[in-house]
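Researcher: Here's a chain I'd like modeled. Treat it as a single chain, no partners, no ligands.
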Amino acid sequence: MSPPEPLTFAPRPPEGPPADLAGATAEAARLLGLPTGEVLTVVVNDPQRHTATAAVLPHLASRAGPAGLRVLVATGTHRFGPAQVRGFEAALGGAGACGAFAWHDDASPALRDVGGWRAHPWLAEGGPVLAVGSVEPHYFAGFTGAHKTCTIGAASRADIERNHAAALDPSARPGRLDGNGVHAGVATMLAALEAARGRPVFAL
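Model: Modeled as a single isolated chain. Structure tokens:
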């Protein structure tokens, strides 16, 4: 008797942008108070995660106001070659009026202190910030995306390593937030970021 075929569980790929995408971005704009007269910083997933970011940017660009928006690619500790960077920017820039792109560098001397950890300088500035991306189970952080995009995705290597050291604890499991030290660390980073900026950070 031959062994059974292994089962693979994976989410069904979306057939296209959700019908309520315009409504979701309208709600995000309302929460951010757009337009504010300040540039909107949109923090997005890097090319390693297949997120339909290009579908969201035109909706946000139309609501950002005269100051427009800029895109911060939350790379964490990932690295990408020049061809990947150009292709990714072209795909996103062709979909929305992106004023500028920045790729997070976890070793950059320009990182700024935001209440106990160091972040990309755009996050330390006072304008509105919106993280855009998918929320999925993560093998030790509980879930990835949203809160993790604008913290771990834009933090220094030392801060990322300090947070991820908690992954050695048995409580760091997929889908678990309560008691998960990795998630608790991310929540602390987000609270420090919001306190340093004096305004909330939202995710779409």
